[in-house]
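Practice problem: predict the structure.
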Amino acid sequence: MKKTLIINILLLVSAFVYSQNTVTGKFPSLNNQQIKLVGFKGFDTYVIDSIRADKKGAFILSYIEKDYGMGYLSAQDNKPFFVVLGGENIKLKGESFAIAESIEIIEGYENKVFGQYATEHPRREQALSAWVYLEKIYTEDSLFAVQAVPKQAIANEKQRIKIEDSLFLDGLPKNSYVSYYLPLRKLVSSVSTIAQYRTEEIPAALASFRKIDYSGPRLQKSGLLGDVIEGHFWLIENSGRSLDSVYIEMNTSIDILVENLLPDEQKLNEITEYLFKFLEKRSLFKASEYLALKLLNEQGCTINNDFAAQLESYRAMKKGNTAPGFDFKKDVIAPGYEATKLPQKLSDLKSKYTVVVFGASWCPVCPQELSQIARQYDKWEKYGIEVVFVSLDDDEKIFKSFSGVFPFISICDYQKWESSIVKSYHVFATPTIYLLNDKREILLRPNSVNQLDSWVDWYLVQGNK
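Answer:
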């Protein structure tokens, strides 16, 4: 009985050891430093293994099957050296992780291939861009356009470089992680070059982005998830199309992305929230609105509460909707009004336009944005614009000290996020700005004071000349 138990334990230990792979290194300059092997999980990273190098800078780290994908080594200077965790033992030596050219990959096929491509591909891309530039000269400049031989030589060399790169990638073992990762990395890294110099490749690049399995484990372990999403939509934005065409293409990509992610609600929430924030940051509001409404109307998925609240603001507070009215509760600071004639509610204002700003003294961006509004207020007021600052502060002294210097109306009910006004306007972040007309219809939901001021200059200042 005991003998059988011991044998089973030994077999389990042996199986565990056998399933491990090692990353062995010797970097004298990293002696006695803590060395970490870090892996990727979606948008996040995690420490796979960590050990202190000996006095000669030698270390051995381990990883197992769940870690397969990309990873990186880092020491105390936090400069990463990327490695392919493809189920093979890896052996390295060099001076420092920060000096990639000093590192020799002694063992590990996938890592040798990765290192080779990482060195050769940028050189091919650089040469290709140079030939594209020359081809343009020999095509458009009448001095050179008559030279058929150089033009053909340039076309041949361009084709040769592309074939050489493709043959390298096609020759990788199909079951290796590098056979997935390297084409993906090539796609992402080529986005700006394609948009600027090789526009004929844009349709193929977009098709490649749309074929990606965004919920697949290989992408989740690549460390490229954010880059892929941003590269995909940045390329559409910078594809040279009209703005209407850009939004049509983005909506198509959003449809494909959401359809791909529907079976996995966790990834659906994580990835679409990342995309939503990216589109908002780029002021691509029609696309972020389309994404918001698509997710809210999708019956086959559940959206996390916090994210759903952000999306709901697009449905309830989109351009053209009527904004809720509200009373000026608790404290009101209105420098331009007599004490006996302070406005009691939003509808008391008789201005042609009203800017409603939600913010607070504790918001990192709000002081700067509100100060900018204060500087523009005299100009805006001439064109019939009133400003109402709804403060989310919860301390009376802080509110009055912070808001007392502004030339526009400031109100506060000290309820912070629980304020009925905040909730009725579906505010989930500060600052949030709305521009309303005299019927309280939402004309604009600017992401900055600069954007709002540009609207004033274009529609009011220029329009009155």
